[in-house]
Amino acid sequence: MSASGAAKPVAALPGDPPGGRRAIAVWSIGVAVYFVAVTFRTSLGVAGLDAADRFDVNASALSTFSILQLLVYAGMQIPVGLLIDRLGTKRVLATGALLFTVGQLGFALSTSFTLALVSRALLGCGDAMTFISVLRLGTRWFPARRGPMIAQLAGLVGMAGNLISTLVLARLLHDLGWTAAFAGSALCGVVVLVLVLLFLRDHPEGQEPQPAAHHGAAFVRRQIAASWQEPGTRLGLWVHFTTQFSAMFFLLLWGLPFLVEAQGLSHATAGLLLTVVVLSSMVVGPVFGHVIARHQEARAPIALGSVAASACAWALTLAWPGAHAPMWLLVVLCIVLGGCGPASMIGFDFSRPANPPERQGTASGIVNMGGFTASMTTLLAVGVLLDLTDDNYRLAFCALFVLQAVGLVQILRLRPKVIRRERERLVASRVETVHVPA
To answer: Are 281 and 156 in contact (CB under 8 A)?
Structure first.
């Protein structure tokens, strides 16, 4: 994507990374780390009922696992962005792989609720270091016009990690038991950590970023303030907030209990429906990336359309008369939810052209806080409401609509400011081009 926000793809800008096979190889290592991180992050989604039995906890306490994990994740986004801008991708990504591997292994061996919570917090801390690092790798190794597609492909790989946890880890949990399944999966973290240490590079040769002139508290404040002052960064955060959470809370924890306990499905059938969400996301993601790379004006309509489709699907499912919604409606719901993850990636398509390369990590961290803050809030609200209403999923899940309404108000408020800002940037770039001597 060009910094000017033009509607059509343009040739590579001077100084753009060249891309190519080397870029693909390095970026693939980064997305492999992200793949494993998402597998670990979503592993509780297929083990929620097992965890409730293992640690003897109710719905509110069970949701604490995911809430703490997401609290750590969201709280780490800005610090991680600053670390990436200062230290580079390799160091941050290696640290993240180490932390989420230790967290997954600790969760496998935990026999008490407290130790399990500490393990999930470690996992969330390591997970927080992965996605922004992968986005940074993309901007360092590929031309700017490839930004939307590269981001969507990274999200697609993450959803593949979700698919692994839904299909493979669920089966291992059933066949091998808790400790063997989670401890065995932790070996994947060791593998990607070794790959990062041996083969990953922050940038191509000759593409070294300019070193920051200052570090410390003043530098941090300037980075955060400058990123936040850009309307594109703030709009990106609210797009991410409003689009991601309605699928994230479903996949991360409450989808399986809802389908089994509220809809009367078997564990196997519920697992297949969770798989539909993931497969739908993997199909939709590249389509969104291709469309936005060619037509940037499609960013907001796609995001708003995804929110509207999600709200309608949830409203119809929860309001359906009778004890259970029909299977066709649950399938439609899961297909629609599959578009939420790719839609959330559009938030980065607003922040990326609004910030210079030296602020990309910080700006991406701010945006990435949005969806995970909303997901964390939803997980907590649903858990509390389930306990207060004696497991009435219809009432508990209505918390979704409150957060969607808040996010929509912010998107509609900020969108005109972003349009004006991008037009100003486009005019400035044209003037600069006219004055550049041949």
So the answer is: yes
Residue 52's contacts (CB-CB under 8 Å, 6 or more residues apart) are 58, 59, 62
Cα distance between residue 142 and residue 119, in whole Å = 35
Tokens of 231: 């309307």
Neighbours of 281 (CB within 10 A): 26
> Any idea which residue has 């770039």 for tokens?
429
Structure tokens at 203: 């940038």
Distance of CA 406 to the CA centre of its chain: 20
Q: Are 363 and 227 in contact (CB under 8 A)?
A: yes
2-48 pLDDT, tens digit each: 333 344 443 344 457 777 888 899 999 999 999 999 999 888 877 87
> Residue 250 in contact with residue 258, Cβ under 8 Å?
yes
* Rounded CA Rg of the chain: 21
- CATH topology for 21-202+221-424 is Growth Hormone; Chain: A; (1.20.1250)
Helix (H, G, I), strand (E, B) or coil at 21: helix
- What is the pTM assigned to this prediction? 0.78
Distance (Å, rounded) from C-alpha 388 to C-alpha 206? 60
Q: Which helix (H) or strand (E) is 332 found in, with range? A: helix 327-337
